[in-house]
Design a protein that fits this description.
The protein has helices spanning about 15-35, 40-50, 60-65, 70-85, 105-125, 130-154; strands spanning about 60, 85-90, 95-105. With about 150 residues, it is mainly alpha-helical. It has a three-stranded antiparallel sheet with strand order 1-3-2.
Length: about 150
């Protein structure tokens, strides 16, 4: 029996394993962010994109691309973040259908509180993995992401 004819073993199917792993990690991080800061996963991802590297104002489309989330999920997260006073929005002058997003002072302060927690949680997650393992994981994930994007374009 060839590999194409064999039954699919979900526990060994790479897309499934990656999804389950990512979701499990995301839920663990989210539980901490929700409990401490009242943020959902999508809200945290938007906050993280807007806060990284003092990026400054970002169009909604850039946030969608950076988070990998769909437009509706990002829109809802942005609305909730704006309602909490963490993000400010303005209409993009070059495209009246788009918004420019930026962290408010309150959002920046919250981001600065969360970053050390995120680093600590990542360190805890990767305990037991050496520098070589982490470098290899990084290379493999980059290759898989590039290939997945290529498959999506086909």
């Amino acid at each position: 029996m060839s590999e194409q004819e064999a039954p699919l073993e979900l526990g060994r199917f790479l897309p499934y394993r990656l999804s389950v792993t990512a979701e499990s990690i995301s839920r663990a991080f989210a539980a901490s962010y929700e409990r401490r800061f009242g943020l959902t996963i999508p809200e945290w991802r938007v906050l993280a994109v807007l806060g990284q590297g003092e990026a400054g104002p970002r169009p909604t489309q850039a946030v969608i691309e950076a988070t990998g989330m769909d437009r509706v999920k990002v829109s809802r997260a942005v609305t909730r973040l704006a309602d909490k006073g963490l993000v400010t929005r303005r209409i993009a002058p070059e495209d009246l259908r788009s918004q420019i997003l930026v962290l408010s002072r309150k959002g920046q302060a919250l981001y600065r509180q969360i970053v050390p927690l995120a680093h600590a949680m990542q360190a805890e997650l990767t305990t037991g993995l050496g520098a070589e393992d982490l470098a290899m994981l990084d290379r493999v994930l980059e290759r898989l992401l590039a290939r997945a994007r290529g498959l999506g374009a086909d």
